[in-house]
Amino acid sequence: MSYPRVIWSENKLLHNAAVLQGLCKQQGVTWVPVTKLICAEQEIVTSLYKKGYTSFADSRVKNIKSIKRLFPQSFATLLRLPAIREVKEVVLYTDCSLVSEWETIQALDEEAKKQKKIYQIILMVDLGDLREGILPNELISFGQKILKLAHIQWEGIGTNLTCYGGVIPTPNNLSQLVNLKELVKDKLKYELKIVSGGNSSSLYLLPKCRLPQGINQLRLGESLFLGKETAYGNKILDCYEDVFHLEAEIIELKEKGSVPKGIIGKNAFGKTPTFQDLGIRKRAILAIGQQDVYIEGLTPVSPDIIILGASSDHLIVDVTMYQEEIKVGSIISFSLNYKSLLILMTSPYVMIEKNY
Ligand SMILES: *Cc1c(COP(=O)(O)O)cnc(C)c1O
């Protein structure tokens, strides 16, 4: 076994998926697992696919390519707006893209023609968060042009909130999206199939039945993997927040003072650190660092362990109060937030293992 490693529980993951499935189904919403947080890790994707979740969304073509290699029959949606330079791979490996630029839609149409395909798009509308999307008053003129393209199938409209501007999805701003679908029906005589009402930040509306009628899709990552809705950061009822945890190995364990001796200059990251004198403390150095994880997003599973700091590849923790017997080679566990899991999953130095 090698460390550091991220351990994940299949039971907890599938439990969370089932909870989301129940919440969405009761209101006529389908949800798509978003795999970017876990870099479309093969075993995780496999475990979801085998349970019947066969549609995935990811922001990177590379991740989707690996999903398609495993499961050619899966349906894959690209979440990040395609770059003009990647339309060839986009049409080759993905089934649908979220889009907002006319040039890109045209390029997708041309490429789909070359590849003898009909390619699906979901047109993004910016409802105020100021990340991607056309403005609502451009929808009809965009739609007119899209409907003339021979190799593009206009599947739906969607929005993304909370990611950049922090705008909370509400019955008010989300019903705008439903109204826009109706507008397309009236003005263009075209029935859009999908009204995609956002990410894990829209979930808090579901238990209260406040998601506007007509929103029929959500794209869910953080809620699936970390059991949280992201509008207010609350745990979703019955979901596990600890599908994943981190284990790292102690490579030094010594009693030392709590204030460095000597003239204090700048540390590895250009900051001048300050210290409080707590006397002699028992300190452990773990073999993991800033290169592998976002330290501020780690929480020791034991409340008796305190994170003191980290450089690129050393994490220093205070274990003075820790009751367990530990020695060099012992393992310390941490729970993870979104950013720490994201960076861990991206680090080639970190193993990922299923906990059987
Ligand atoms: C990342 C992303 C999602 C999923 O967001 P979560 O908060 O992880 O549920 C949905 N839609 C888009 C466009 C995204 O980029």
Model description:
- The protein is α/β, with parallel strands linked by helices and 356 residues long.
- Helix content is 27%, strand content 23%.
- It has nine helices and 16 strands.
- It has helices at residues 10-25, 42-50, 61-70, 87-93, 102-114, 139-147, 171-188, 222-226, 338-346, and strands at residues 5-8, 30-33, 55-58, 75-78, 96-99, 119-124, 152-158, 194-196, 217-220, 244-256, 281-286, 298-300, 306-310, 315-318, 331-336, 351-354.
- The strands form three sheets. Strands 1, 10, 11, 12, 13, 14, 15 and 16 form an eight-stranded mixed beta sheet that branches. It has a six-stranded parallel beta sheet with strand order 3-4-5-6-7-8.
- Strand 4, helix 4 and strand 5 (96-99) form a beta-alpha-beta unit.
- The mean pLDDT is 96.
- The site of pyridoxal-5'-phosphate has 14 residues, from strand 9 and helix 8.
- Pyridoxal-5'-phosphate binds at residues 34, 36, 59, 79, 98, 160, 199-200, 219-223, 230.
